[in-house]
What we know:
Layout: E1 8-11, E2 24-29, E3 36-41, E4 48-52, H1 67-72, E5 81-88, E6 97-98, E7 104-107, E8 113-115, E9 127-128
Amino acid sequence: MRKCLNNFRLDFGQSIVGFEQYRYFQINGFEEESKFCILQSEGDSNIGFVLVSPFEQYPEYEVQLSEEIIETLRITSPEDVAVFNIVTIRHPFESSTINLFAPLVVNVQTGESRQILLSHTAYSIHSPIFPQRSEVG
């Protein structure tokens, strides 16, 4: 699981759905050991998102990157990639959700980033932040 990229500038190339007018963002962790990050627009301080790496909550989560995304982000190895998902905060917090359908893919070397929409998937934009674990038996 990748932690937040503290004080790192990301270039989303106007790819965040609904926020295409914002290209550059800063990412920071909330606190040292938190798994949550804040993604803050450089163009408008009122625009920000709570992020989390999905793999702790959803270990089976998979993202297949197209050749186009690999080229666009100039990814040369798997170690270059971080995946984050936007969290929708609800009250109580346990009812918050994660958008697994539209992950944010980051090249941790260059800061080049894109939000991608996964095709042919059952992932939801409103997946529980704390999924129910089925018991094996």
